[in-house]
Fold Dipeptide transport ATP-binding protein DppD.
Amino acid sequence: MQNLQMHFTAREGVVKAVEDVSFSVAPGQIMGLVGESGSGKSMTAYSIMGLIDAPGKIVAGKILLKDQDLRALSPEAMRRIRGNRIAMIFQDPMMTLNPVLRIDTQMMEAVLAHQDVGKATARAMARDALVRVGIASPDERLLAYPHQFSGGMRQRVAIAIALLNKPDLIICDEPTTALDVTIQGQILYEMQKLCRESGTALIWITHDLSVIAGLADAVCVMYAGKIVESGSVQEVLEQPQHPYTHGLIASSPSRNLPGLPLRQIPGMTPSLLNLPSGCAFRTRCERATAVCENTPPLSIDGARTLRCFHPISAATEVTHD
């Protein structure tokens, strides 16, 4: 993705939901996209999938899938790619599953829509996909309806559907948020294993840094529609340079001493209709000075990128102070 901009036009003005976002994900790589609600994570995902409807519009940038610009495709060509070469797993599995159709019907339709195979082959592929995500008694489960599954099982089915056509890229929009910790851990392990085995690239959207720490290879931190810091998971989480990344990590419960109030980033995410001039984070930042009223340039150091006039030194540690 190169310099993506996605805006909504409203009566009050233009909402810059995604502004100058660039990143790349290699085959078999897992990239985390993190930030507070309203930071632009999901809108970035919907832009990749071609699911932006009016009044939203991609106004600039390229979305490249193996050198093919998805923005240049017709709606029909994009439909052939969506669910086939790129797939998305939503936070609510019922956004994927039709409540009135059996699981086998839905999974076979996903295969037959993109591959020239018979129903018997499609059914066998559906069964194999259920096995891959750890669902026991797959033949019995194929005959069930979504309401007969628990939340964790429904999410596994949604993941199985995303995997059916062996896509080049899967986007996961917080798919484990509503699940208990045990089921979440199982699904994270399975997704990581499947990506390694199949070579599928994965973008995992979340606000939970602990998930990213154990799952992803790289991470992009978004704030107010922009990526403010990116790099390898180890670099960014162990030595955050942007004050916003530092604040996210410091506010994690595991970083706070027992019995003391949780640390938090002061203030609220600004309205995308009325962003402050320059750095959007400056009104909440302890390190902000007058220079932050200007737009910080993007600094690139190998695979590490940063947008900040006053980065935290690499020697600075995230402490409980």
In short: The radius of gyration is 21 Å. The first helix runs from residue 41 to 49.
